[in-house]
Design brief:
alpha+beta, Butyryl-Coa Dehydrogenase, subunit A, domain 1, Butyryl-CoA Dehydrogenase, subunit A, domain 2, Butyryl-CoA Dehydrogenase, subunit A, domain 3, 3 domains, four-stranded mixed sheet, four-stranded antiparallel sheet
Amino acid sequence: MDFDLTPPQRKRTEQILSAVREKLPGSPRATPDPQISRDDWRTAASIGLTGLCLPPEFGGEGLGALDTALCLEAFGQACADTGLVFGVAAQLLACAVPVRDYATEATRTRFLPGLISGDLIAANAITEDDAGSDVGGMTTTATPDGDHYVLDGQKSFASNAPVADLLVTYAVTDRSAGFLGTTGFVVPRELPGVEVSPPLEKMGLHGCLAGRVTFSGCRVPVSGRLGREGQGGLIFQRSMNWERGCLFAIYLGLMERQLEMSVDHARRRRQFGRKIADFQAISHRIAVMAQRLASARLMLYRACWFIDEGREPGTEISMAKIAVSEAALANSLDAVQIFGGAGYLRAAGIEQQLRDCVPSTIFSGTTEIHRELIARGVGL
């Protein structure tokens, strides 16, 4: 059991840290801006971040889950715009991975090069107002009609949707079949019957624009289907293994940057004639932050190792997702306390980190849902 990174892994992450610090935002984004998002997206693509685990024949790096997570961790550490980091990771893992694994060769050839180069942006449209954690409550339908499917319904909270060129979505094709009654599709945005709302106003992650997607009699060719009809539940589940395993590495990077900022502040800030680092109330808080980060990192790396070994990650993914998201939220609250009044002001960037971390316990399955999965996994 080797806990050290290999020389190629260290070199790759160091290159990403350097390139991101040089080319991408050094401060959080206070408000969403579609044009800036598109420009930054192309910059991230030029660094190679949009194709980490995608096939080399289309311009990707062909990395496994652990190496992808290491790169996304470096991205999250170096870029203060966590929303942008999240948007890139969400496209890569929730959109491009299912296209990589389940789309027709023609669809892969049509879309993967653009997704990797940054010329195309994809959104994952599955969540509905009444079908968040309860995916089985999905009401969007896909009705076969000759060599097409007709999509009708509305999706909410689709990350990247306002700037997306294509949508990876899921719809019910057979209500009576339950888990086997959902099918996945790749839907170009320009198809008639696709409508995307303006960006939703959110608490944080401003660099990732989110919106509603409405399908009204949208005719999608059969060639745009992912896998077989009725395979959508399985496809989504497998793509979520990649998302829950790799995407949350961006929060490891955020926590690493946050810890460095907190240590630096504690060394420089003086109260009562002493550095606040000399007070146990501060030093012990920082020690706990470091402990949470180290624990979450080990669990996430292990979950990614399961994916790379071809083993069903199951409870390992759920444990890692909870560990990282809850550590990120707790560490952000601690960082606000360490910075005091300055942490509450936007200038320091600490309050933005907190707002960016709040949704981490909600998306990709809430903490409560994952605890249920863990309970079942241990035999309850």
